[in-house]
Amino acid sequence: MDISRFATGVYAKKGVLKMTGGSVKGFTEYGVMVGEGVESASLMGTTITGDGKGTGVMMMGGDVMLNMVNILKVKTGVRVEKGMLKILEGSVTEFTGTGVMVGSEVKSASLMGTTITGDGKGTGVMMMGGDVMLNMVNISRVKTGVYAEKGTLIMNQGSVTDFASYGVMVGDGVKSASLMGVEITGKDSGDSYGVYAMGGDVTLNMVMISQVEMGVYARKGVLKMEGGSVTEFTKTGVIPVMCHTDLN
């Protein structure tokens, strides 16, 4: 089924929603909106195309699975306020604001093999809380790759490339952030940081950082680096400030 030129393409208020294939396009507010009363929502192989504004998928609750869903030309790709989110493969591209936004009341969000590509501005993944897992997720062409304000962040493999300001930014409300085998590559220009940590326990295991002004800046908390590298930086490789640092 192809749905086009509505304020909201699909609005599920209660029950169970399943979408296979098809498209939602030309919407002004939401491509798919999942209400708080929905038990579960599953989208597979669906294409959601905006016109430069609005949100591709908005979920207020329930368990939502996006499998090989492609979202493009929106302000926000996926926004989650409550519940549990799983994104398997697929993509969020050509967004002007945020690729995936995880609210403070979300229990967990998991992305695997997803491609997130902006227009040179905005944030790839923004998390305000919950447990967020990014597994083999590739983020590019953004101002900030991943911004974690609270909760727990795990990044396994994948990459953050072609960012203008921050590859991964960890706020002081984050409990822990763990990166393993992630490649972080900036634009080799301007004031850019590979990893910028304001607090929490941050572990970088076999993380490769390059083409930034500063590789790792840790203001507070605990920083552990095992293996990996910081290369082609224009100013400083690692700056620990008022934090416990373990570099191996």
Automatic annotation (TrEMBL):
Protein name per its UniProtKB record: Right handed beta helix region
